[in-house]
Amino acid sequence: MMLFKKEREIHNGPKRSSLRWLLGMWVVIGMFACKAPKNITYFRDIPDSVRFAEVNQTIYKTPEIQVDDILQVTIQTLDPAATTMLNQQGQSVPGTAPSVTSAPAPAINGYLVDKDGNISLPLIGKLQVKGKSTDAVRDEIQAKAGAYYKDPVVNVRFANFKVTVLGEVARPSSYIMPNEKVSLLDALGMAGDLTIFGKRENVLLIRDNDGKKEFVRFDLNKSNLFTSPYFYLRQGDVVYVEPNKNKVASTDMQQVKRISIMASVLSLLIVVASRINF
What we know:
alpha+beta; wza like fold; Outer membrane lipoprotein wza fold like; elongated
C-alpha cells in the first residue's frame, strides 16, 4: 500500500509541475495580449462626486474670411424678380462629401474669394471681404443694396467651412460644418467619436495660419481643454487622433506571429500533458 502511494506521488509530481508551468505561461500571455486600455474617459480630473462645476471657457472669436473661402450670399427684397437676380450664385465649386464614399461630392454654389480677397456680386459689384467676419460683410452688402431696394434682408455664411478629422475615429473624413461656431468636440462628434484605440491624451490640431502651420495638442482627459484658445476651430483645420499602444501592438505582425507560435506550443504541451500517466 505504501509502495503504491509512493509510486502515485512520483507519477503525479511531474504532472503537477507541468500544469503549474502551463498555468503560469497562460497568465504571462494574458498580461501582454489582453492588457486593458487606459485613459479612455474624458475629463478625468472632474471627480464623479462633483454635481456642479464651472470652467472659464475661452472666448469665442468669429472666424475671418480667407482667400479661397466660398460664401453663400442671399438678398431678399420686396421685388421677386430682383431677388432672383441678386441671388444668382457666382460659381459652382466642387464640394467635399461628409463621409468616405466613392461617389463624387456635390458642387457648392457660392462666391469664391479670389486671390486678392474679393468677391463679385450682381449689381453691387466687387467687394473686399478678406480678413472680415461674415457679419461685417453682411452689413456692408446690406448698406449697398439699400441704395437700390427698400429694407433688403441679407444673409452671409460660409459654404465651405470644412474641418478634417483623421486617425482613430469612427468615421475619418472631411466635414462641411453647418455653422461657424464649431468646437473640437463638435468635430469629433461628427466623426463618430474616438475609437477605443484613440489616444485621448494626445489629440493633434493642425492649422494653417497665414501660410504657416500651427500644431497644438489637446488632452481630452482634462477639463482645461475648454480654456484653450484653439478649442473653437477655424475653416480648414485638421484634427488627428493618434493610435495608442494597444492599436500599434494589434497591428504588429511580429507580435501576432509570436503569440500564435506560443499558443500552438502551449496547445501541444497541453495535449502531451493530458496523455501522461493516464
